[in-house]
Amino acid sequence: MRVLGISGSLRRESHNTRLLRAAAELLPPPVGFELFEGLKGVPPYDEDDDGDLAPVGARRLREAIAAADAVLIATPEYNHSIPGQLKNALDWASRPFLENVLRNKPVAVIGASTGNYGAIWAQAEVRKVLSAIGARVVDAELPVGAAEQAFSGIRLADEVLHAGLAQILDELVAAVAERQPLAA
Amino acid sequence: MTTVQAETTIPTGVWRSDPVHSHAGFSVRHMVVATFRGSFADFDVTLANRDGAPSLYGAVRTESVQVADENLKGHLLSPEFFDSERFPEITFTSTGIRADGGQLVVDGELTIKGTTKPVEVRGHINGPAAHPAGGERLGIDLETQVDRTDFGLNWNAPMPRGGVAVENEVTLTIHLELAKEED
To answer: What is this structure's pTM?
Structure first.
C-alpha cells in the first residue's frame, strides 16, 4: 500500500510539507509514502488544454494520484480558505469527472498554520471539495496551530496532536482496506 | 381488478418482477420548491407465498441509478450518496404482510448504504390476470417515506436565500408487474 502526500504549500521550509514528513514516519510498515513534488508545475486549469494532451504537470499529478492507494493532503490556510495552487490541482485531478483519479480514493486532510487555528477552515473546505469530486474522505481533521513551534525533530511535539495524526493515518489505511464491496 | 382484503388473499406461488414493465423510483424536494425524481434501471423483486406465509424481497443495484445528467449520476454513486463501490445494493426484506382497509401494508427492513431500518410500505395489489402469451401477472404498487440521513446519505448545501438544496425526506415508489413462476 502506498500513500501519496500533497502539500498545499510551495515554499521550501513549508510547515505543511514538514507535517507530511512527520506523517510518513507514523505510517505502519509496509505502507509506503511518496511526497508529490510537482505542485508548482501544475498550470492553471484550462479546459482547452485538457484531454489526452493535458500539460505534463497535470498529467504527473493525475498519474501520481492514480498510482497511490490513498492520498494525504496537508493544507495551509490563505484568507480562511484553500491555497489557490492546491485548489487548482484538485480541479485538474477531478477531470474527467466520472473517471477522475480521486473517485472513491481514500483521502485524509490535515493542516498547519502559524496562527492559532491550524488551518481548520481550509481543511474543511478541502474535504468539501474532495467529497464533491467523489473521493472517499476521512471525516477527521488535524489543526496544527503555531506551526513554527509545533515540531520536535521529525515529529509533532504535542502528544495529543501526535496521537491525532496517528489516528487519522489509521483511518486512512483502514479506508483502503474497506474499499471492497460489503453486504448491502 | 381485485384488492387484497387479507393476507391470505395474496395469490399463492412465487412471483418475480418483470424488468421491462416495472419501475423503481424516488422523489425528493429540490431547490426548496421543486420535486426531483430519479429511478433505478436494475432491480428485482420476488413475492413468495407458500403455505400461506407470504414474503416480499427486493434488491436494487445502486450503480443503475438513472438521472438525466451523468455528472449528477457520478455524484449519486460517490461516497457522499449511495457509495456504490462499497454498497452495490439496496435491499428490502419483508417481516410481515397485511391488509389495512383497502391497502396492502408490508412491514420490512430496508437496507441502504449498510444501514438497516424498519419501514412500513403501503400500496395496492391487483390481480392476478392472465397474460395473453400464457401465465399469470400480478400488479403491486408500493410507497414509503424515509429520512435519507438515517442511512448516511447526508450531503446538502444551504441555499443563499434560505432552505437547502435537497430535503432529507425521500419518497420511494415501486410499481411492479410480477410474473408467476411455473410450479
So the answer is: 0.87
Q: How far apart are CA B115 and CA A177, in angstroms?
A: 19
Q: Under 8 Å CB-to-CB from B1, ≥6 apart: which residues?
A: B126, B127
* Whether pLDDT at B8 is above 80: no
DSSP H helices in B88-177: none
How many CB atoms lie under 10 A from the CB of residue A24? 18
Query: How far is B85 from B32, CA to CA, in rounded Å?
Result: 30
pLDDT over 50 (residue B5)? no
Cell 445502486 belongs to B62
Say if the Cβ atoms of B86 and A182 lie within 8 Å. Answer: yes
Tell me: the pLDDT tens digits for B40-90? Answer: 999 999 999 988 899 999 999 999 999 999 999 999 999 999 999 999 999
What sign does the dihedral A155-A161-A165-A167 (CA atoms) show?
A: positive
The vertex-B181 CA angle with B178 and B183, nearest 5°, equals 150
Give the three cell numbers for residue A7: 502539500
Asked if residues B117 and B150 have their Cβ atoms less than 8 Å apart, the reply is yes
Give the B window 10-29 contacts with A, CB below 8 Å. none
Distance from CA of A43 to the nearest CA of B (A): 24
Closest-approach residue (CA) in chain B for A107: B79
The answer to whether the CB of A118 falls within 8 A of the CB of A156 is no
Q: Would you state the cell numbers that stand for residue B103, as one nine-digit string?
A: 391497502
Cα atoms in the Cβ-side hemisphere of radius 13 Å centred on A43: 10
The interface predicted TM-score (ipTM) is: 0.83
